[in-house]
What does this fold into?
Amino acid sequence: MTSPDLARAAGERTPQDPAAALIADPYTGYARLRAAGPVHRITGPDGLPVWLVTRYADVRQVLADPRFALDKRHATPGNYRGFALPPALDANLLNMDPPDHTRIRRLVSQAFTPRRIAALRAPVEQVADKLLDAMAPHGRADLITEYAAPLPITVICDLLGIPAEDRRDFRAWTDSLVAPDPARPQDARAAVGAMLAFFTALIRRKRAEPGDDLLSDLIAVRDEHDRQDRLGEDELTSLAFLILFAGYENTVHLIGNAVLALLRHPGQLAALRADESLIPGAVEEFARFDGPAPLAIRRFTREAVAVGGVTVPAGETVLCALASANRDGEQFPDPDRLDVRRRDNGHLALGHGIHYCLGAPLARLETAVALTALLRRFPRLELDVPEEQLRHRPSLRARGLLELPVRF
It folds into this structure.
């Protein structure tokens, strides 16, 4: 294959705009790429050449192989053009390799232990019930705006200790970064400036008046000068930004995509209503079937590496197609079928290896609670618009609905 752009490569022989087709249905396009070969040299979303890995075994290899770095310094000069963040937001785990990655992950992982996540179940259930109480009298709602989005943002803000009066329109900020409008580049720059100002001011207030929350704990680690593993100031700000951004973004889409999948598959919906014990396993299936991130965070080759029989030179940018890997028939029987009873579901939607999503246990809990509460409350839940009117975010990197109108 030559070097077409990602959307055109996956959308060959598709009569509509290939980028729009890949956003609306990434799975048909990725199936075509997966069948054509394990690795493709294409033009990535930033307009520069990248290597796209499509098959499960190869994607899993890349995600766990230390020869594929996250640190942008391993990219050949001029070979990568990602979105530019200031150092105070860029010094985060998505741009780090060991030993810095190990040091920072060890510090923050204490907030996501199984015991702490289990203790969050009751607060998450309270948030879900409150949101459903507000929706119930109206008989219809946009499930994204009124439920899937506010639930995780409330939980993550409570975890970080962000007071209710200080909570901003985080969804608008994340939309500007994940799905920027090419005609309005100033919106993304404004969002970056607003986020930096917000976190700088919040950390300043927390440092003066610490509370019983994760951000206060991280500030204490930053300010303990005798600790060898303490955070730098940019690392502290970047970590707060990443926890909020990632802790909110992926869960919104996981919940929304899961509900839509159930509404499209009434037999699976009936199975969950009949047996709530299936819901934890079903969450794994929703992540595999229509996960929130079609592409993993980019990697850079430290040296020449063979992937799927293709040698990728040193300093190259590599993208792993999670959406493709999770529908690979070599790994998953009948991969395009939603099956809430599926066993041995080793999906890669939340990563693999040392960079596995730190907040995955919280995302699982929030999604399971959100689905359980929703299905209990509204036994006649259904779409409130024709399915063809649903629109996904205009992004090849994030898989989520702009709205999900339902009635009940």
